[in-house]
Amino acid sequence: MADYTRRRDARWPIPIGLTFFVGEQGLRLNYSAIILVFRTVSRGIGLRHSGDAYRGPRIHDLRHSYADATLLRWYRAGEGVEQRLPVLSTYLGHAHPGCTYCYLSACPELMGHAARKLEARWEALS
């Protein structure tokens, strides 16, 4: 990200808009073009068959994977996930952490961390 930021800022020292990722003209990326490129790349690496426009991974799935991976990284590092969740929500563009919960998957490791937290709270209340 830092490398991209340096190269973007070298090419467009005065931002044209507020978006982080920009296209060749320095403007916001076109969503339809992003989807087309994502489908082409996912076909090229074997995640989608030729002709499958609607089957296979979606670009939006990356948000879910990122949210899960971030929480797992925080749990593994022993960081206070409850305190850091607003950071993740902000990064995903959500106004409130409650909007972020739908991005979290019930993967076994995350469920294990959640269960241990819940058990610890119940023990503290007993």
Structure description:
With 126 residues, the protein is an all-alpha fold. It has two domains: 2-44, no CATH class; 61-125, no CATH class. The protein is 55% helix and 0% strand. It contains five helices and no strands. It has helices at residues 2-11, 31-44, 61-76, 81-91, 108-125. Helix 3 (61-76) packs antiparallel against helix 4. The chain starts with a helix and ends with a helix.
Helix coverage percent of residues? Answer: 40-55%
Are there runs of 5+ residues with pLDDT below 50, and where?
Answer: none
Number of discrete domains: 2
Helix segment tally: 5
Radius of gyration: 19 Å
Largest sheet: none
How much is the average pLDDT? 84
Percent in strands: under 5%
Structural class: mainly alpha
Q: In terms of topology, how is this protein built?
A:
Elements: H1 2-11, H2 31-44, H3 61-76, H4 81-91, H5 108-125
Helix pairs in contact: 3-4
Gist of the model:
This is Phage integrase family protein. This protein is mainly α. 55% of the residues lie in helices and 0% in strands.
